[in-house]
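Exercise 4. Each item below gives a protein and its sequence. For each, produce the structure-token representation.

Item: D-ribose transporter ATP-binding protein (Clostridium sulfidigenes).
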Amino acid sequence: MESNIPKLELKGIQKFFPGVTALANVSFSVKKGTVHVLCGENGAGKSTLMKIINGIYQPDGGSIHIDGKEVKIQNPIEARKHGISMIFQELNYIPEITIEESIFLGREPVNKLGKINWKKIRKDTEELLKQENLPYSPTTQFKDLTVSDIQMLEILKAMSYNSQVIIMDEPTSAITRKEVGILFDKIAELKSKGVSIIYISHKMEEIFKIADEITVIRDGVVIDTKPASELDIDKVISLMVGRKITNAYPKEDIKIGETMLEVKELTDGKHFEDINFNVKRGEIVGFAGLMGAGRSEVARTIFGLDPYLSGEIKVKGKEVKIKNVKDSINNGIVMLSEDRKRYGIVGIRSITENVSISNLEKFFYKGHLHSKKEISSVSNICERMKVKCPNLETSIDSLSGGNQQKVIFAKWMLRNPDVLILDEPTRGIDVGAKYEIYKLITELAKENRAVIIISSELPELIGMCDRIYVMASGKITGEIDREKATQEAIMKLATRGE
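Answer:
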């Protein structure tokens, strides 16, 4: 009977915020040594549930049980004492901190004189690194590590607390395919040691590679829990969104017009060289490649964020000189960055302010801001982009990832651009919101705009693009038409010279 007791069990969890029921009678359990995947759209209640398990929020009803015994978790320190650790999607760290300092932060051992015992910290860190087969030095600073390295160290830190339950929130959102493989190997190793993993992800293909069980949550309610073997991608998506999505990629056949953007022999001397490509009106062109291939750097250069040494950029057949973002915008080129929180939105500001910030000249007359015109324009464009929000004065921080992305689309569409560069347009966005973004991209292409999609999700590129350019080591290694595009064909070109 002992083996049938879940490692972690939540019974009838409820959580209320002003005017909102975030969780309604949620019951959820994780068996020892298994990976339990939690799926749901943004706003479904996943994060709230995990914050309750981690002691960040207190439930308004229900109970938490570990190994069959009810426990109260008042804060993350108590969660760790109960063997629960959480690795957040956005890894927060101090760049100059060392590995050993990070692992023992807040629990530094002291000697008889009450001073920090650095010898013990060094020795214990070396033992932990060796135990987990991680090839790092205790004195390495975080600024010298990759995102994948930092994730591995977060797992190491969790194991140093003797964690028996580790929550991983979107752990593969910013790492390469190779690093995903390393992470999955580490998860398998943790399972073999009896550690339970709660894994949150929007990446359907990954889920089925590691999941033992899957729970789908929607609108604060558990819709279903089943062994992964009894589900497939379509079933999970249907449970998540409450409806059947028959075509995940709503690409349409659109009449292709003349060339809008042409790039010739573009070279920056650091990240890429001799880049040649073109995009036509009504066309959606993809850029594939492994992390570090130079795709985002090319996009940043065309948008005027970074300089280039040589080459030509032509818009509508005429060469243009792009020295900064203003030059790019004035020539009808706009870009949605892969890092929307850093480059796309002003977090503490309202939707109205975020949309109008790049369009203020439209609303000023003789030094005065015409608020009525601003509000009317923002309202119309947000309605067209199908932004879901309580009102336009809502802080953009409070919106889901999908709606934040739509606000960025709205900001740029007010400028009526000819060319849109979309760098990882659906990163961190749930399945239902992705579908809406895809429909929006298709509509923009139908308006005779040229669209470039840079994405690490190959099914997304194959499903949405007319043509796909593939990059490796700073060069374009090939071009694939929609009819011939397969993941295998793309990866073959993406690994040239690797």
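Check: The first helix runs from residue 46 to 53.
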